[in-house]
Design brief:
about 140 residues; 3 helices; single chain; seven-stranded antiparallel β-sheet; Alpha-D-Glucose-1,6-Bisphosphate, Chain A, domain 4; alpha+beta
Length: about 140
């Protein structure tokens, strides 16, 4: 019997008092990554079907797959599409719930994971502020 290995996952969520489509319009638009995820994307530019992201530590080629009907946004490493960030926008009453999941290798240090997830929490608050005018964090 073949064993299947999984990686550690970490998920954070935030409630947003905005319609699902409004949230998808922010987080699914690659050009807006610097607005809500500046630690990841200082700038972005299209290149064919992919996007080149200036991460501050160099350029990364990503592919963004948006499925509005399902409320999904997958931000994938273009060279290794099993790696990336996985966002889901779920209905939450009259608003939305933005769910953000990352996977980490088995040997990832606890402090590195905690630091990365603190950044994700900042990104979620920034996305919410862009979706709900006048709201900060």
């Amino acid at each position: 019997m073949q064993s299947i290995r999984t990686q550690r996952s970490e998920t954070r969520t935030i409630s947003i008092a905005a319609p699902r489509r409004a949230v998808l319009d922010v987080v699914g638009d690659s050009r807006r990554f610097p607005d809500w995820a500046p630690a990841f994307a200082r700038s972005v530019r299209p290149e064919g079907d992919d996007w080149l992201v200036n991460t501050g530590a160099g350029e990364a080629r990503i592919r963004v797959v948006v499925a509005p009907e399902q409320g999904t946004v997958d931000v994938l490493d273009a060279g290794r599409p099993s790696r990336g960030a996985f966002l889901r926008v779920l209905p939450n009453g009259e608003g939305s719930e933005l769910v953000f999941t990352l996977f980490f290798p088995d040997d990832a240090a606890e402090q590195a994971i905690a630091s990365q997830m603190a950044i994700v929490e900042d990104e979620l608050r920034a996305a919410r502020s862009l979706c709900v005018p006048g709201r900060r964090g």
